[in-house]
From TrEMBL:
Species annotation: Mesorhizobium amorphae CCNWGS0123
Residue ranges annotated for the Guanylate cyclase domain, each copy included: 466-600
PROSITE patterns, sorted: GUANYLATE_CYCLASE_2
Record-linked InterPro entries: A/G_cyclase (IPR001054), Adenylyl/Guanylyl_Cyclase_3/4 (IPR050697), CHASE2 (IPR007890), Nucleotide_cyclase (IPR029787)
MF annotations from Gene Ontology: adenylate cyclase activity
GO biological process, any: cyclic nucleotide biosynthetic process
Transmembrane feature ranges: 348-370, 377-399, 405-425
CDD domains with a match to the protein in the record: CHD
Descriptive protein name: Transmembrane adenylate/guanylate cyclase
Keywords, alphabetical: Membrane, Transmembrane, Transmembrane helix
Amino acid sequence: MTRAQLAGVILGLSLVAALTIVRASDPQPLRLAREATFDQYQRLAPRSFEAMPVRVVDIDEASLQQFGQWPWPRHRMAALVEKLTELGAAAIAFDILFAEPDRLSPRNVVRDVPGIDPALLDRLPDNDEIFARSIAGKPVVLGYGISNEGNYRPRMKAGIAFTGESPVDAPPHIRAATPLRPQLEANAAGIGHISLNPGRSTAVVRTAPLFLTDGEQLYPDLALEAMRVAQGASTYLIAGVPDRQGIMSSVKIGDFVIPVTSAGELWLYVSPDRAERYVSAKDVLAPGGVSPETRAAIEGSIVFVGTSAAGLQDIRVTALGENVPGVSLHAQMVEQVLSGHYLSRPDWANGLEIALIAMLGSLLVILTIFVSPAIALACGLAITGMALVASWLAFSLAGLLFDPFAPIVMGSITHFATTSFRFLVTDRERRAIRRAFGQYLSPSLLYRIEHTRNALRLGGDDRELTMMFVDVRNFTEISERLPPTAVVRFLNTLLDALSRHVTANEGTLDKFIGDSIMAFWNAPVDVTDHPAKAVRAALAMRETIARLNESDAFGFGAGQTVRIGIGIHTGVACVGNMGAESRFNYSAVGDVVNVAARIETACKTVNFDILASDDTVRSLAGWALLDAGSLELKGKSARTRINAVVGDESVASSPDFAELRLLHGKLVEALHSRSPGSRKIIAAAKAKAAGLPAGLQDFYGRISRRADDFLAKRAGAAAEANAGYAEQQFGSGS
C-alpha cells in the first residue's frame, strides 16, 4: 500500500464515519427526503378504494347554498343527528368544534335586546340544549382541538388498559384542549381529538396520532372513538414494550388491532379521493325524504360529519399530493383499519439503514482506492439498484417502509469524494498536461492530447474545416484614444465574451491576433454539421456584442459602440502541430484560412457584420441568408461569392424575412441588369429590414455602389438554399 493509498483509505473511512453519524442524528433534510420517497411509493401504488361502511356527510357548497352560511344553528345539527340515527348510522362523529354557545340560538339572540323580560328568556328555546338532547343515548362522537390557553381536558368516555410498561408519555403532548359545551360533553357517547398532524411543520399529512397525552392521561382521536362507539366497546388495550416506558406498539379496539409507531401514530395509507366516499348534507336533510341511494350509504356505516367548502379552510394535503377535506382523512383512517392494509416502519429500520451506509461506504472506499473508480461505480450502481428494488418490494408486498434515499446519497458522496481524491493525488501526469496547455487549447484539443498516443509531436492532416476570423472594426481609432491598460481591459472583456461561443459550439480556438480571433471547426475531433455550428457561434457573437454595447460593458459611455466583422469559409486545410520540436502550436494552414481572413476583411466593403462563403452556406438550407455578390479577394484570381448571414431558421421563417428575400431577389436582378428601378427596390428593402435583428439597413445603404459585384450570372449558394427551403415549405408551384 502506497502512502497516497493509505491517506485515501483514512480520509475515505473518516468520511464514511462522519456520514454515518449524520444519518444517526437524522436531520430534518434527511427526514423530509425520506418522507418524500415514501409519498412517491404511495403515488405509484396507492391503497385501492373499496366499498366500506364508512361515509362522510359533507357540508359542501351545495349544502351551504341550500341551508345558509356556516356555522349552522345547532338545532339543524340536531336534525342531522336525528336523521342519521333514523337511517341506521352505526356511529356519528363530528369533525366540528362546539366550543362556544350557539350565537344563533333564540335565547342568545334575544338576551342582548334591551327591555326584554328575563322571564321570557327562559321560555325561549336554546339550540345547545336541543342539540344536547338529540345526541343523548345515540352513538354520537364529538371532536375537540388543541389549545395553548386554559387548562381544559376532555372527559374520557372509555377506559384504557395497557400491557408492558406505561405508554403515557409516547404520544404528542397537549397543554389544553378547546372546551366542549358542558351539556354536549355530558351527553356524547364518545369524545376524540381532531388534530391530524400536531406539531409538524409540513402540510402533508402522513401520520396521525391515535392518542394525545398530558403526561397523566391518554386521549383518543376522533376515528378511534368512532370505531369504539360503533362496536359498543368500552376499553382501549394498548400494547407497550417490556422494560421500556413511553413506547407503543399496537392499539386494540373491539375486534381490531392497529399497529402504530412508537409515538402511537398511524401511518396513513391513503386511497385517491372518490365521490363515493361522500354524501352531501343537503341530501340527508332533504325535506322530501332521502333517496334510496343515500339510505343505503348511511345504513350500518360509521359516519363522519365535516365540511369540504373551500371558505371553511379545512383542506389537507395527502401523500398522493391531493388536497382533500380534513374530515375525509378521519374516514380514511377507519377505512384503513377495516381493510387491514397498514404501513409500518419497523423500529430496527433506522439501525439497518445506518449499517448499510457504513458498509456500502467502506466498500466503495476500498474499491475506489485499490481497484478502480469505474468498478466502484458499477458496484455502487448495482447496490443502489438492489436497495431500490428491495425497498419497493418491502412496501408493495408487506407495507414496510425502508428508506433507500439516505444510503444511496451518502454512498454517492463517498464515491465522489474518494474518486476526487484519487484523481487529485494519483492522476498527476494528466493534470500536468492540463496545467501546461489548459489556458491555450480548447477542451476538445486537450481531450485529444490526453487520449492520443504521440499527440505532442509535429505533423498535420488534411481535413475539411470551417474557418472563422473575427475582427474589431476601427480598433486603431479605439486604441489611440485609450491608455494601454484600458486597451488591455477592453480586449480582455471583448475576446473573453466572444471566444466562449466558439468552444460552446464545439469549435477550436486557434489564436488571438491582437484584436482578432482565429478559430476553426472539425479538428482535432470530428464535429458533425460544423458549418452550421460555426455560423451559430457567429450569431451568438452578434447578440453578445449588442448586449455588451447596451450595458456599456467597455465603459466608453453612451452612444459609443463597438462593432465586429466575422468571415466564415469552409474547405480543406492541413491541421496539426506546427513549429519546432521544442515549441509548437496546433493550428491550420492552407487556402481556406486565407479566404476566411479575406472574407472577414470584406465585411467593411459590404458594410455587414457576418459574411460566409458559398462553400459554407451550402449546408445551411432554411437559414436567413442573402446574396452579397461576388468580391475580388486579395490573392484570388476569380471572384468569390459571399453571403450575408441574417439569422437562423427561426428568422428565415418569419414573414418579414420572407418579404425581404423576395425584394432582395428582385434587387439582385435589377443590379445585374443595371435597371434604373433598383433605387426604389433598395428603399423598400431598407424599410423592410428595419424589423429584422441584423444591421441590414447599412448593408442596403452600401449596395448601390456595389452593382459590379452582382454581374456574375450564376446563382449563389444562399439563393439556392433559400429556393430549396421555399420549395420544401410551400411546394414548387406550377
